[in-house]
Fold this sequence. Notes:
Elements: E1 10-12, E2 28-31, E3 34-36, H1 42-45, E4 56-57, E5 77-79, H2 86-89, H3 92-103, E6 112-116, H4 120-131, E7 135-139, H5 145-153
Parallel strand pairs: 6-7
Antiparallel strand pairs: 1-2, 2-5, 3-4
Helix pairs in contact: 3-4
Amino acid sequence: FPVILGHEFSGEVVEVGTNTTNFKIGDRVTSETTYYICGECDYCQNGDYNLCNHRKGLGTQQNGGFTQYLITPATSVHHIPDNVSYKAAAMTEPLACAHHAVSKIDIQPEDVVVVIGPGPIGLLVAQVVKSKGAKVIITGLNNDQARLNKANELNLD
């Protein structure tokens, strides 16, 4: 409070800014969580704008996806392909986080990777690791049994 939460979402464009050319009303979109960055700091200049000290995020410093209408800069918006549902597109941000994390290490097909925690990000990380050909072991606690069962359904090994 007073910010409306929600940083994992998708929707339809209902209005575009005067200088926006890549999007039109009716486009199916999802967005990064970035609402504002300074554009001048070393992080911004090097493409690591998610680390900008002046960054404002959707759902944290600016109203997010649980509001009826959301404002986000066109630079943060991405088109959703026709074959991707709104529900699946809402997972773009957490999947991007998982992919980014896995990209920081060199995973080889013969590797065994342990993912600690079968929450949504852990399950996504496990799937990204599996896509690299490695064997995945995912761990959790007794109260994680439903999520561990979901991990088994994903055939991670």
